[in-house]
Amino acid sequence: MDIDYTKDPVTSATTRPEFFETPGLDRLYAMFVALTEQFAVSLERQDTLKQLLIAKGLVTEDEITQYTPSQDVIQQRQAAHEQLVSAILKPIEEELLGLDRQ
Questions:
Q1: Does residue 88 or residue 72 have the better pLDDT?
Q2: Measured between alpha carbons, how far is 30 from 48 in angstroms, rounded to an integer?
């Protein structure tokens, strides 16, 4: 699919910009951009914490690489993953249930 980036998106005061002919693609694109932004921020914060810990001598690069989480940590991470996936899929679920038309 070729996208003409020079074309102005269709907008009005009450609607979101439309870049694609299919509204679902616009929603998917918005979700992807939002997720990518959050992921980039998370990576930056993770790197900041790692750099601070290493600089203060509290942990080494090898300790980070070789870390094995406990079962409790694995369960906490799984719950966080499920919450994230639920939040990402919420707009699609709402669309399928017709909740955003009210």
A1: 72
A2: 27
Question: Distance from CA of residue 50 to its chain's centroid?
Answer: 21
Give pTM, 2 decimals: 0.58
SS3 per residue for the chain: CCCCCCCCCEEECCEEEECCCCHHHHHHHHHHHHHHHHHHHHHHHHHHHHHHHHHCCCCCHHHHHHCCCCHHHHHHHHHHHHHHHHHHHHHHHHHHHCHHHC
- What CA–CA distance (Å, rounded) separates 67 from 47? 16
* pLDDT tens figures, 49-65: 999 999 999 999 999 99
